[in-house]
Specification:
There is one protein chain. The protein has a domain of about 90 residues: 2-Layer Sandwich (Alpha-Beta Plaits). The chain is about 25% helix and about 30% strand. It is built from 4 helices and 4 strands, in the order βαββαβαα. Strands 2-3-1-4 form a 4-stranded antiparallel β-sheet, with helices on one face. It is elongated and about 90 Å long. The termini are far apart.
């Protein structure tokens, strides 16, 4: 049977128990049609890059599926009808990964560290603004050098 990776986003106001119930419901649909779920990962409530159906956050869940195409089509059809599912995507893969997905690897998230300031970027490492260090200023021939300092010094 073909292998699939399937990710779906559930509404933000759904509880974790409701999301687990949805996962069980969709796994039952697959099992009735002769498929099975090799692994299910609940990635948690995460912010969306942009609003989807007036939601700013969603519960992410990933399923590794081993099922015939008809079973996957039926599951997707029922997801389209569900009001709890915001988005979903199914991808056919050659084999499933044996280790946890990238979203579940905690050490990778800890190694990234902070962003270096309120605007992000590598401002501290490069020295200077977003375009790098400024360097020395050239002489301006169109201006006379000042003999008298400005007031207040």
């Amino acid at each position: 049977m073909p292998l699939y990776e399937h990710v779906f986003l559930a509404r933000q106001d759904a509880s974790s128990a409701q999301v687990e119930q949805l996962t069980k419901e969709f796994s039952d649909i697959l099992e009735e049609a002769g498929g099975k779920i090799a692994r299910a990962e609940h990635w948690g409530l995460k912010s969306l890059a942009y609003k989807i159906k007036k939601s700013r956050k969603a519960h992410y869940t990933m399923l590794n599926i081993d099922a015939p195409p008809a079973a996957v089509n039926e599951m997707e059809r029922r997801m389209r009808l569900s009001t709890d599912i915001i988005r979903f995507m199914t991808i056919r893969v050659d084999d499933h990964e044996s280790e946890p997905s990238v979203m579940m690897r905690k050490q990778d998230r800890d190694d990234r560290g902070g962003r270096g300031g309120p605007r992000g970027g590598d401002r501290d490492r490069r020295g200077g603004g977003p375009r790098g260090p400024r360097g020395p200023r050239p002489d301006r021939p169109d201006r006379e050098p000042r003999d008298n300092p400005p007031a207040g010094e």
